[in-house]
Amino acid sequence: MIIIDTIQALQKTLAEKRQQGKSVGFVPTMGNLHQGHLSLVDTAKKQADLVVVSIFVNPTQFGPNEDFDSYPRTFEEDCEKLDQQEVDIVFAPSIEEVYPGFKTDKTKPSLTSVHVAELGKSHCGASRPGHFDGVTTIVSKLFNMVRPDIAVFGQKDYQQLAIIRRMVQDLNIPVDIIGAPILREDNGLAMSSRNGYLSQAEKDQAAGIHRVLQWAKEQLESHKLSFDDVEQSAVKQLTEQGFRVDYFNIANAETLQVAETSDTNLVILAAVFLGKVRLIDNITLTI
Ligand code: PAF
């Protein structure tokens, strides 16, 4: 496994590999890797000859009061895990390498940003203004640096995946986007770097999010309750379990708009706070 920290060195190495006829798979991450990330790597390995994993905590996708400074940085452990997973290249650039403008203006390191309208308005986009613009900007920058044939993203960040698919389609970026299933702890809690902020007792409590999502899915599948009733009851259940609910929304699985009764492919998206930790999860269903 090679660790590379400059764009120039990355592109030189990848040009050589491409000349040997190798296809490139890409898994972008912010580090603090867990089993969920490693499953994305596995998916990429099945689809491409060599795999690049980027580790970059992207400042532009964090809001002013979010956890950019305290976001766990575990570079050594991450590299060990990726080495065991037989990743070919770890790309770990500095902030200045990615955003040369960061030196002069931390608040506006890039004058250009990529904005995907509509899909980014609701759900996490409503609670985290600017977040998805930060994500789409960094992901398009990383795509230009790596120029992968395929890129793998987790379905846990359902809205992010939908936005990236749309960006790639709208901007004709020549990469196949692959969505990989959510990996869960034995208790059902979706794996996430932010679970590292939780105590064991809080992790057990946080498993309630998945249970409520499953309950909601069952209600919709059996047509027992209306969409509104399911949402309201789910919020009540989560609140009673000690969460502060950011949103619990039943949406059209493709457009992410509020679900209509005529929709058949649905996604239930949830974001809750447990103390200061914001956790997201989702479940899809066809009715
Ligand atoms: O999902 C993430 O970890 C990040 O949003 C991503 C895609 C690596 C962009 O910084």
Task: Please state the CA-atom Rg, rounded to the nearest Å.
Answer: 19 Å
Give a short account of the largest sheet: 6 strands, parallel
Class per helix and strand makeup: alpha/beta
User: DSSP strand (E) fraction?
Assistant: 15-25%
Kindly give the count of domains: 2
- Average pLDDT figure: 97
Q: Oligomerization state of this entry?
A: single chain
Return residue spans where pLDDT drops below 50 for at least 5 consecutive residues: none
Anisotropy-based shape: globular
**How widely separated are the two ends?**
45 Å
CATH class assignment of the largest domain: Alpha Beta
Order of helices and strands: EHEHEHEHHHEHEHHHEEE
CATH topology of the largest domain: Rossmann fold
Q: What is the number of beta strands? A: 9
Helix content: 25-40%
Features:
287 residues, alpha/beta, Rossmann fold, 2 domains, binds pantoate
Please give a structural write-up.
With 287 residues, the chain is of the alpha/beta class. It folds into 2 domains: 179 residues, HUPs (Rossmann fold), CATH 3.40.50.620; 90 residues, Pantoate--beta-alanine Ligase, Chain: A,domain 2. The chain is 38% helix and 20% strand. The protein is built from 10 helices and 9 strands. A 6-stranded parallel beta sheet has the order 1-4-3-2-5-6, with helices on both faces. A 3-stranded antiparallel beta sheet has the order 7-8-9, with helices on one face. Strand 8 and strand 9 form a beta hairpin. Helix 6 crosses helix 7 and helix 9 packs antiparallel against helix 10. It is globular, with a radius of gyration of 19 Å. The site of pantoate (PAF) has 10 residues, from strand 2 and helix 6.
